[in-house]
Amino acid sequence: MIKANNPALKSWLEVPVDSDFPIQNLPFGIFKTDYLSPVAGVAIGKYVLDLVCLHEHGFFDGLGLPAGIFNQKYLNGFIGLGKKKTREVRERISELLQHDNEELRLNVARELAIIPMAEVEMCMPVTIPNYSDFYSSVEHATNVGTMFRDPKNALLPNWKHLPVAYHGRASSIVVSGTSIHRPKGQTKLPDAELPVFGPSKKLDFELELAFITCKETPLGSSISTKDVDDHIFGFVLFNDWSARDIQTWEYVPLGPFLSKNFGSTISPWIVTMDALEPFRVAGPKQETPVLPYLVSEGQNNFNIALEVQLQPENEEASTVCRSNYKFLYWNVNQQLAHHTVNGCNIQVGDLYASGTISGSTPDSFGSLLELTWNGQRPLALANGQQRKFIEDGDTIILRGFAEKDHVRIGFGECKGKILPAL
Ligand code: CA
Order of strands across the sheet with 305-311? Predict the structure, then answer.
């Protein structure tokens, strides 16, 4: 039992009812202020707890944490302490914030340790050694296969036997709030003889969630589906920006390259797998039998509502997609077991994205490619404009939250604006 998840808990710090960050969440991130260089923090309501300050004032005494563990640019050192230790820290923070606890509430450190969210700038929470992108939504894979290949054989023969993935680019993953320039590249229209070079005309988002690993494994070893939970610290929202016209021309035979590696955006707060435990659900039934190493027992999907908003420059935002993480065909246990079954080693801070999360209804498709069916059915926006793909000045905002027993575990925002090509 994780005590910090108790739905009955209340904090002495005021938390708005619709907040993504109640006392049951306590996500970890890296923040800076005008007077603080990047340090580790935890979100609670409209505030950020400065973990360096709490550590220095002795609030974590007895937990055996290394000196300076929170006074770092990235959380890799902290999450690398392992699930048992990071769970103890989250439980302790929960204790300090509970309504009947006076340790922090009546301590002089309180003023220093609690910073209004409006005064902080969020940074990349981890440095990411490796990034892989799965393709785990059967609806997304079916839509893409129908559009680009053959509606009768939309899924390739391997799809229900293994969680398809490719290795992505870690260097261009940025934190929410970072603007992205429209990528340039080669494209070729179907009836054109030769490719041309220029800014992408079919820039898209992909609604994804990604998990971050917290335990190094040696080369040659594998992680079984039943051990995966020990290896996942938490989740972030993930927008895998994609240039569809560049992708169409380049992707055969080795898959996407420049159509994806110009930027991907993550939300800044890592929602722990611990905080998501109460929201476990069974995934879709896998009628096609899987090989023994992919068998996963128990409830390994999570009920997390997801949405995407498109906001034209200086205009109101329109919600263009509502989906749910629970729709994914392949779960994280199967993903990580498959990733390592050949002996591939895992590093602390690695990021593993789900692939675009589409549902079965047209309003739940997780990309503009699917929502507009490759531009054939433009979307009507709240301001009267239409969109086939993303235009310069548009901001894309991903949100997600799990909710049960009046507890809402949210991810905050994953936001990025598209600037004209350089
Ligand atoms: Ca993707």
Answer: 180-181, 407-419, 395-404, 305-311, 318-324
Other CB atoms closer than 10 Å to residue 64's CB: what's the count? 9
Per DSSP (E only), the strands in 130-215 are 131-134, 165-167, 173-175, 180-181, 184-187, 196-199, 203-204, 207-213
Q: Whose CA is closest to 370, among 256, 207, 239, 240?
A: 207
Range 131-419 classified under CATH 3.90.850.10: yes
Q: Are 180 and 262 in contact, with CB atoms under 8 Å apart? A: yes
Q: Where are the beta strands (DSSP E) in 107-224?
A: 114-116, 121-123, 131-134, 165-167, 173-175, 180-181, 184-187, 196-199, 203-204, 207-213
Q: Is 43 within 8 Å of 27 (Cβ atoms)?
A: yes
Q: Give the whole-angstrom CA distance, residue 347 versus residue 128.
A: 9
Distance from Cα 264 to the centre of ligand 1, integer Å: 9
**Number of continuous H segments (helices) and E segments (strands) in the chain:** 9, 26
Cβ neighbours for 189, distance < 8 A, ≥ 6 positions apart: none
CATH number of 3-123: 2.30.30.230
Cα-to-centroid distance, 258 and ligand 1 (Å): 13
Q: How do residues 274-323 score in pLDDT, each as one tens digit? A: 999 999 999 999 999 999 999 999 999 999 999 999 999 999 999 999 99
Looking at residue 363, what DSSP letter applies?
A: G
Is 140 labeled as catalytic in the residue annotation? Answer: yes
Q: Sorting pLDDT into bands at 50, 70 and 90, what band is 381? A: very high
Gyration radius from the chain CA atoms:
22
Determine how β-strand 386-387 pairs with β-strand 196-199: unpaired
Domain ranges, ordered by start, for the chain: 3-123, 131-419
C-alpha of residue 287 to centroid of ligand 1, in Å: 25
Q: Provide the whole-model pTM.
A: 0.98
350-364 residue pLDDT tens: 999 999 999 999 999
- The residue annotated as part of the active site, out of 55, 140, 231, 339, is 140
